[in-house]
């Protein structure tokens, strides 16, 4: 295994107001030196990307976005935000293919890949989300579904990207896969990436996401192949998110 720097990312979804952005400053103070050893990212709603990037420009917290347009060039696409605009606004990463976008907005693997490629072209690091539903897990289709999503959703051009394994059934609830199940799917993702990119697959960070909290984060971080986490609810409050970050073995 290469020296992959852990990444712990917070996805604020459509939560938070301007006043809540102060939590990012509190987080920066709480995590101290851990920020040098772990990449820490907050993805606020698009409306707040620029102001939070500006407010945290000289601090340790990176700012990202939760989605971007698949269109690289400026275009007549009302309501869309391009990856280039997000990069201009100070974002460093962008989440693509979150299950809420795949399910509610019917995003396909192909669209997710186009978004990831637009992000890479704009100089952003895409975080490509994959994961099975409860029905797919019950039907024994985890490898089929996650393997297909990885093969079809990650960018085809070279450049750094991140994969987040987020079992859909574990998001927003209280249950997570067992540590063995997490290890198994992370190995499958790495193997799938190796089939596409050869040895370079060892450089790709693979995060776990789905009901990560201050209580379970420490043990999830010990699982082989887990390079960090994508955290929803528990990233909104600096106290919870910093407890997760400080529970990573690289934090001390
Ligand atoms: C998410 O939305 O990416 C997520 C992992 O949410 P939660 O941590 O709240 O389950």
From TrEMBL:
- One Pfam family, please name it: TIM
Q: Where in the cell is it found?
A: Cytoplasm
Domain of life, per the record? Bacteria
Look up the record and name the pathway of this protein: Carbohydrate degradation; glycolysis; D-glyceraldehyde 3-phosphate from glycerone phosphate: step 1/1; Carbohydrate biosynthesis; gluconeogenesis
Output one GO MF annotation. triose-phosphate isomerase activity
Does the UniProt entry include the keyword Cytoplasm?
yes
Chief subcellular site?
A: cytoplasm
**Catalytic reactions on record:** L-erythrulose 1-phosphate = D-erythrulose 4-phosphate; D-glyceraldehyde 3-phosphate = dihydroxyacetone phosphate
Q: Which PROSITE patterns match?
A: TIM_2
Task of the protein: Involved in the gluconeogenesis. Catalyzes stereospecifically the conversion of dihydroxyacetone phosphate (DHAP) to D-glyceraldehyde-3-phosphate (G3P).
Similarity comment text for this entry: Belongs to the triosephosphate isomerase family.
Q: How does it assemble?
A: Homodimer.
Identification of the protein by name = Triosephosphate isomerase
Query: Organism source for this protein?
Result: Candidatus Viadribacter manganicus
The organism's lineage is: Bacteria, Pseudomonadati, Pseudomonadota, Alphaproteobacteria, Hyphomonadales
């Amino acid at each position: 295994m290469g020296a992959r720097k852990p990444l712990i990312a917070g996805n604020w979804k459509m939560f938070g107001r301007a006043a809540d952005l102060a939590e990012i400053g509190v987080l920066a103070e709480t995590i101290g030196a851990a920020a040098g050893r772990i990449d820490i990212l907050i993805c606020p709603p698009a409306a707040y990307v620029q102001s939070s990037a500006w407010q945290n420009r000289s601090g340790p917290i990176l700012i990202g976005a939760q989605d971007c347009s698949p269109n690289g060039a400026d275009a007549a696409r009302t309501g869309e935000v391009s990856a280039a605009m997000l990069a201009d606004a100070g974002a460093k990463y962008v989440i693509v293919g979150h299950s809420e976008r795949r399910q509610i907005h019917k995003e396909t693997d192909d669209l997710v890949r186009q978004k990831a490629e637009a992000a890479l072209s704009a100089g952003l690091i895409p975080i490509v989300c994959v994961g099975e539903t409860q029905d797919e897990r019950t039907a024994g289709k985890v490898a089929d579904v996650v393997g297909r999503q990885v093969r079809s959703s990650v960018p085809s051009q070279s450049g750094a990207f991140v994969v987040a394994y987020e079992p859909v059934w574990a998001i927003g609830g209280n249950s997570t896969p067992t540590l063995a199940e997490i290890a198994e799917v992370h190995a499958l993702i790495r193997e799938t990436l190796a089939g596409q990119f050869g040895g370079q697959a060892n450089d790709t960070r693979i995060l776990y996401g789905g009901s990560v909290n201050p209580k379970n984060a420490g043990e999830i971080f010990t699982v082989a192949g887990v390079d960090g986490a994508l955290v929803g609810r528990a990233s909104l409050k600096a106290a919870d998110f910093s407890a997760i970050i400080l529970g990573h073995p690289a934090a001390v």
